[in-house]
Write a structure and sequence with these properties.
8-stranded mixed sheet, 39% strand, 4 helices
Amino acid sequence: MRVLSFGLLLSACSGQYQITLTFSEDGTRAESRVAEVAVVPSCAEQELGPAAGNSVRQVVFRVGEEAPSIGTLDTGDYGLYARTLDANCQVISAGCRPVSLSAGGDGTLDVVLRPVSPALPQCSESVCAAGICGGTSRDAGVERDVAVEQTVETGIVGSERVLDECSPSSDLVPVTVTTERIIVDTRSFQNTLDESRALDPTCELTAAGPDAFLPFEAVEGQLWHFRLSALEGDDPTRADATPSIYVVGPACDLRSQPVTCDASSNVCQGRGDERLAFRVPFAGIFRLVVDDDLADGTVYELNAYLVACGDNVKTAGEACDPTAPDGLFDCSEDCHIIFDENGAGPSTTIPAFSTTRPEAVLVSPSSPGTAVEMVVPLGAASDELGAACAAPAVVAVDLRAPTGTTPDTLTVRNDDCENAAPDGASDEYTVSLFDENGTVVGGVDTDEFFGRSCQRIEFTPERAAGDLLRYFIEIRPTRPDAAQSPTFVFTIAP
């Protein structure tokens, strides 16, 4: 047996306990890459192997690295549940020990870990990063801060992880997993970031008010989804809040690591949610910036989701997950809702959450040349609260461009605009076509119908790829305060 002390500390009413993990077999210790330790109500209710259920506190850390403190608990009886995962995100050992925490108590609490056989996979290898399933809280554990959760419930401001400056300090405690209900109160913060140095003016980002920074640690290739909303309350300015959110690189230097439009969002006013999908370009500690446009600031709720397609959970930031079917939509292997000539599930209207590329619906007709009609809510019609939002509706298409044969041609037109009465209005939106790297590829043209302008797309890939090429159509309203739901017709044919 091999005993390892990870320096985990647990406190209870002035008492302090140290937690150790003992492996009953040295082989499981050698293969362990990630350890999870959770405080659960009772060991009797916890099955060994699966993730902790109803945990009071839970931390996850890599074996060999410094472990965080579990924190302070009330005195009483608990279960101390631990498990380890190997490099392939499989649970290979687990154990649970009943503990009784007393006021002023101290000592060592040892949890014996026994092999889990067969090993218990937590996600597919495609989303496994050295023992962590994309970092999601449901599969690889989550450090839960009960104090923050209680703060949200009582309406008191605060999360110690939200900072007033973009500090590159090594003392940061970054978010590493899905973390919800983070309170961001910018009223006590300052405008500390000189956004004018490198913010792209075409992104239309706000820079007038105080800044708040949420550090998050990420590895290359991870997908993070952020959602920010102004909280209801006595402060009347919240209804006028129009914050920007964007990601700043690890150096906190906008000159060397400028913010791109793809890593920013400023599309809603007041109650509307700002949503941002961020694909991590390289490993490091990044900062999600909440840039308030109100000089005196206000109060927001921020949710940070680490999205892992294929991890058996449908989470915010992905349209669907084929490993967690809802029985409503057909889901592609890369977590896009499939939209064919019959619509998506029970509806021919694009889901309102399809505002980022990872959440885009995928147009997939049953046969080449079959027209797919789609109703697209825009502006106030696209927001759950009816807020004035300029968030785009995003649609994905796969075009074949095999070597030596005729590639697919994509045609997109607005059926309502083209068939409106002679005195009908012009489009109140813009249409753009992007490749998988976010580069505008053109193909957009404008037709005139009775003096009315109607945008359309006709596009054929120029390069041969031997397989499918992914493209995205963004339909963005020019009048976000107006509710509109035009019908678009998509055709893909050789």
